[in-house]
Amino acid sequence: MRLRTFTVGPWVLTLASLCPNPVLAESSNALSDPRTALTRTAREDEALGDAGQEPVHPEDPATAERSRSEATNSPWLGPRVELGYVRYRLRDGAGAGVVHALAFGGHFSHRWLRFSLLGEGGSRSYQLGSNDLLARAQVVFGIQRLVVERVMAYANVSWGGGVLIGTRFHSSVSDLFHGIGLEAGSEIRTAGPFWIGAGLGYLRAKMQGLVYHSAVFRIRIGL
Amino acid sequence: MSARAGKRVLRSMVQSTYAPASRDALRPTLSVCLICGALFSVGCGTPASRAYAELDEVTVRMSLGAYILRYLAPPWSLVSSDDGRTLLQIDADGERFSPDSGFTPKYTCQAEVISGNALNRATQAERTAAAEESILVPQRPIVTDGGNEGTEFLSFRDLDMRFLRRAYFDSERGGVVRVVFEAKPDLDEREVTKMLRALSVDPEDPDLAGKE
After folding, report:
1. Least CB–CB distance from B35: residue in A157, A204, A205
2. Would the CB atoms of B75 and A169 count as touching at under 8 Å?
3. Cis preceding-peptide flag for B74 (omega within 30 of 0)
4. Could you tell me which of A90, A153, B113, B208 has the fewest CB atoms within 10 Å of its CB?
5. A130 secondary structure, DSSP code
6. A162 touches chain B (CB under 8 A)
7. Neighbours of B165 (CB within 10 A)
8. Å from A2 to nearest chain B CA?
9. Does A211 contact B46 at a Cβ distance shorter than 8 Å?
10. Taking a C-beta distance cutoff of 8 angstroms, is the pair B113, B65 a contact?
11. Which B residues, 170 through 189, put their C-beta within 8 Å of a C-beta on chain A?
């Protein structure tokens, strides 16, 4: 899949800043080298010309402002990273119930397609003792559409698994679970690169041969 | 999925070679396969919302009484169930990390059918226990989820520093179902109460129910 440069741009820039860059290195050396400084002065003199005019820059302030404005007003390609809160139920008859979790993850968008990797950490309430700890990872495939200028609607299918660690009768127990989910919602681009979003979904999870059905509520912020 | 996309998926499944025509259909095909795989992996199962779905159970039917003892496994494990007597236990933490090291189990639960009357049996047991144990909670009523009324009392044995919880339920067959918990932690807790309430005394026999 070919990703748009806009989507992967920040990642590329981050990597580029970490890697040795010959172009940047050259310009850095050039500034510290007096001979190059002399050469530059000569070039500037050439640019000034005989009449001593100001050097002609390839981009004047108006053009730069226009291009910056175009970049800001370019269609939003969707979220890239997120931090959120998610609530669902893994309720059984033994007192276990609602899950409250902190979710985090990244999104990769290509036109109307979206692929996401999400992680989750939280707790599941247990009426008869201390709450269980929960960790879950999810792979999400979805579609997205910019319905109005700053509002992105999405629908996705997710598959993931996790672990629950808790205490029963003063003994630690752990259970693995996995499940699929369907979710739909929307994201609103706010100031700058930030966005907020909310979604509702359905989760069908399986643990120790038992099937759990639950509604999922999610609120998120991100870049 | 649109009709065109569906046709592309079908075409890609039929075509054996990786022709350019099927290249576009690869992504939807993979997506469909992934979704089907995910659905299949979750599959069918017992709904967790069903009563006692998460609990294992032992059914005992004797001439004097019958019961279903339900327990959460793990941590509980069934040690034995014969002659109307069922023994469950939770191993000590040391035993879990070093098997056969001889640690006393953290919890034991013994259920059995005995003769007599629940109230008389409880009174007699409490009187006997008072000689060697400290009575923490004298006789009090307890009702199971199925509506079976019984009586229970809690005590502490100083000799080995163990808590005990004894419950007695009358059976319609003329006997008594006795459940005795013994543990290192205090037994006057909600998990044990929930386990006692999950006990079924004189459950319907599915074979007899069909005939009646």
Report:
1. A157
2. yes
3. yes
4. B208
5. S
6. no
7. 24
8. 13
9. yes
10. yes
11. 185, 189
Q: Which residues of B touch A128 (CB under 8 A)?
A: 189-191, 194
Residues in B closer than 8 angstroms to A208, CB to CB, are: 54
Q: What is the pLDDT of residue A199?
A: 93
Q: Is B52's CB within 8 Å of A93's CB? A: yes
Quote the pLDDT of residue B122: 92
When CB atoms are compared, the residue of A178, A206, A210 closest to B53 is: A210
Nearest CB to A211: which of B47, B76, B107?
B47
pLDDT tens for each residue of B83-132 = 889 999 998 887 777 777 778 889 999 999 999 889 999 999 999 988 88
Cα–Cα distance measured from residue A175 to residue B92, given in angstroms and rounded to the nearest whole number: 20
Q: Considering only CA atoms, which of B81, B77, B200, B153 is closest in space to residue A168?
A: B77
Which residue of A92, A174, A204 to mutate against B (max B Cβ within 10 Å)?
A92
DSSP structure class, residue A23: H
Neighbours of B187 (CB within 10 A): 24
pLDDT for A51-76, tens place per residue? 445 554 555 666 666 555 555 567 78
Give the 3-state DSSP-derived string for chain B, with helices as H, strands as E and coil as C: CCHHHHHHHHHHHHCCCCCHHHHHHHHHHHHHHHHHHHHHHHCCCEECCCCCCCCEEEEEECCCCEEEEEECCCCCEEEEEECCEEEEEECCHHHHHCCCCCCCCCEEEEEEEEECCHHHHHHHHHHHHHHHEEEEEEEEEEECCCCCEEEEEEEEECCCCEEEEEEEEECCCCEEEEEEEEECCCCCCHHHHHHHHCCEECCCCHHHHHHC
Count of C-beta atoms within a 10 Å radius of residue A223: 13
pLDDT for residue B186 is more than 50: yes
Of residues A146, A147, A120, A123, the one with CA closest to residue A133? A123
Residue A10, token pair as written in the block: 């920040």
pTM of this structure: 0.69
What pLDDT was estimated at residue B164?
Answer: 94
Question: Is the Cβ pair A169, B43 closer than 8 Å?
Answer: no
